[in-house]
Amino acid sequence: MENANNVSEFILLGLTQNQDLQKVFFGLFLVFYSAIVLGNLLIIVTVKSSPNLNSPMYFFLSYLSLVDICYSSVTTPKLISDFLVKKKTISFIGCIAQLFGFHFFGCTEIFLLTVMAYDRYIAICKPLHYTTIMNKTVCSWMVVASWIGGLLHSIIQTVFTTHLPFCGPNEIDHYFCDVQPLLKLACTDTYIAGLIVFADSGIISLSSFLLLSVSYILILISLRTHSSEGRLKALSTCASHIIVVILFFGPCIFIYMRPSTTFSEDKSVAVFYTVITPMLNPLIYTLRNQEVKNAMRKLWKKKTTLGGK
To answer: What keyword terms does UniProt attach to this protein (predicted)?
Structure first.
């Protein structure tokens, strides 16, 4: 597949041009990616195999872990392999596929984090109606809606990008294919396309973040009427989610809530939401959650017992 001007491949400039630093980064990011896959798989297996973790919160958490694995897998393996080669190329169709997957899973994660905040709001502010409102059917439809929302967003980004003419140069100043670096390479006026990217990606990030903020403001107001013990338990449950939201949304808003321009810091900022946050999510949700830690211990004991037999 080639676009209208026969650009068959792009050259990725990567995170750095320093050869020695690339060797260090190869080992470092290989460890990061292994931690992402193993950590999030552990969350999924623990939730699916533990009867005690059957609440909507853990149902959403297992899907968040699945999305994290998919999301990081779109960019990180290519980034790791590129550290070992001098010329980092990606085909036109490979670039578009990477762009599609990145926005698909990234937007799905945004919607899932928003759904998880709504779940916490219902659990804390309307506890008597929680099981009625957040029943299994509703939770399943929320997950499906998150995937569909991510798909629609990704289709919009991909369609507009593939219709841009590229006639050189074909060097992308990034370590993966994203809309804004590609807009810089298009040999046409990209003002309208830039506005569409801003309106789609930026507004989704900002509006979801505002909804999350409103949810937690209402939760904090509601907690004033709770006992000190109940207040601490609720805050402990919400703290993990708030940390993940800040780590993920902060860099996203920085990148997408501005006109279609690129800065030298963009690559470093992108590392946070493509690698660091998916890697930290399992740690954040397990280290601050006694139920998950207990479930993991039981799962480990069961495994060792069966292994001993």
So the answer is: Cell membrane, G-protein coupled receptor, Membrane, Olfaction, Receptor, Sensory transduction, Transducer, Transmembrane, Transmembrane helix
Residue 265 makes CB contacts below 8 A (sequence gap 6+) with none
Name which of 259, 118, 129 is nearest 196 in CA terms. 259
- Tokens for 74? 């779109």
Superfamily in which the 9-308 domain is placed by CATH: Rhodopsin 7-helix transmembrane proteins (1.20.1070.10)
Q: Is 146 exposed, middle or buried (0-12, 13-18, 19+ CB in 10 A)?
A: buried
- Reading phi first (left if > 0) and then psi (alpha if -120 to 50, else beta), residue 162 is in alpha
The pair of structure tokens assigned to 38 is 């193993």
Q: Is the pTM of this model over 0.85?
A: yes
Nearest partner of 156 among 98, 197, 204, judged by Cα: 197
32 φ/ψ angles, rounded to the nearest 5 degrees = -60, -45
CB count in 10 Å sphere of residue 171: 14
Per domain, the residue ranges of the chain are 9-308
- 279, HSE (Cβ side, Cα atoms, 13 Å): 15
Place of tokens 């069966």: 306
Secondary structure class of 54 (helix, strand, coil): coil
Residue 1 has pLDDT above 50, yes or no: no
Question: Rounded to whole angstroms, how far apart are CA atoms 81 and 3?
Answer: 26
Query: For the ranges 96-110, 118-132, 156-170, 239-253, which has the lowest average pLDDT?
Result: 239-253
